[in-house]
# Entry
Amino acid sequence: MTKRNQHSDVLIAGGGLNGPALALALAQGGLTVTVVDQRPAPLRAETGFDGRAYALSIASKRLLGAIGVWDQVADKVQPIHRIKASDGRPGEGPAPFFLQFDADEIEEGPMGFMLEDRHLYAAFLAALREAPGITLISGESVSGQTPGPAEVAAELHSGATLAARLLVGCDGRGSGVAGRAGIRRLTAGYGQTALVTAVRHEHHHEGCAQQFFTPGGPLAILPLAGGHHSSIVWSEESGLASQIAALDDRDFLTALKPRFGDFLGEISLAGARFTYPLSLSLAERFVADRVALVGDAAHGVHPVAGQGLNLGLRDVAALAEVLITANRRGEDIGGGVALEEYQRWRRFDSTLLALGMDGVTRLFSNDNPILRLGRDLGLGVVNAAPGLRRRFIRQAAGLSGELPKLLTGRPV
Ligand SMILES: Cc1cc2nc3c(=O)[nH]c(=O)nc-3n(C[C@H](O)[C@H](O)[C@H](O)COP(=O)(O)OP(=O)(O)OC[C@H]3O[C@@H](n4cnc5c(N)ncnc54)[C@H](O)[C@@H]3O)c2cc1C
# Structure
């Protein structure tokens, strides 16, 4: 599978999730693409059930449909019919004020879709291998880059060099592409770590996604396909999280139960256990000389609202539209005009959303009684106000703002 070519229109560093999505969108628009990923692809593609999953918005579903990936995963998703958020303390149950959104409040329901990482990645990998115009180099990393007047040269760890008109950093939060381009980052820790696993439960989840805000951090219970499994993203103060992570499965479950509650009946652990230290990581600029950043390389956010990948796919849709259009007009796809257009489209929107989620996380990860009362009332007010509810729903579904074509389900 490892092929090399020296020149392509676009070179993508990073074959996680946003990298493959961008490659497929660009190839569909007639551009040649090389994707370099430092992980050997089969390692990730052959993972069994491990509970890691994403909440995908309606807009993300449309994009996956437009680039030919949705059909491969459609029978593996769990539609989200309802979202419920409440404030609470471990063992005390939820506070009386809560926020609830139902699928029938949105024209194009359901509210979103849960999809396991292993299915999404396998579908991307299969599509990359089949798509004409895409070269995938895995088990190799981009270690250097030199922009020139018409092309950028990228050095690989093996010593090989690749050239392209544009280098896109899809290389995650610690983006080397961004660092080498001199793009600085705003980073802020939350002092929280996410414990990620899956549980099996007695009662059917009915497609309901739950978010409990506790003083240590939010606990998300996200419905998986089949009805009796949910993915858990349990954020806790980092010191406590590392103690919990060190527990054996039985004691881990004992610690989880008072936070989880009994609304789904008896629960047992069903997936592998992962830990993710949580921080905000925002690139100061999304573009530099012959360089663009996409996904977590541009904005790494708290998983509180399950928006990280959805935000990245918005970047993918916007950048693909800008580059394909510029190419059709005979313009330089790595030049300043195209890159500025991409940055104008995405930087303000994603920075605002990232900071909004940052505010929500900090407001809710707090046991101050005045803040507690204020936020509980706030949840109650939003829940009772139809206009505000609608704005929240459209935002979560990824339907607000100026939508690139791919987010409306149409190819560029
Ligand atoms: C606990 C948790 C739960 C989440 N839940 C959700 C959710 O429900 N919904 C949602 O939308 N988002 C969610 N997210 C966010 C989502 O996981 C990320 O936004 C998404 O994975 C980012 O994808 P990416 O492709 O930008 O980066 P990554 O997935 O980080 O991929 C980066 C890739 O770059 C490669 N790479 C790095 N350096 C190099 C190099 N020098 N050369 C070549 N390759 C390189 C790596 O091997 C990797 O494959 C969650 C995140 C966490 C931590």
Notes: The radius of gyration is 21 Å. Residues 1-5 have pLDDT under 50 and may be disordered. Residues 7-46+117-187+280-365 form a domain with the FAD/NAD(P)-binding domain fold (CATH 3.50.50.60). The longest helix spans residues 336-364.
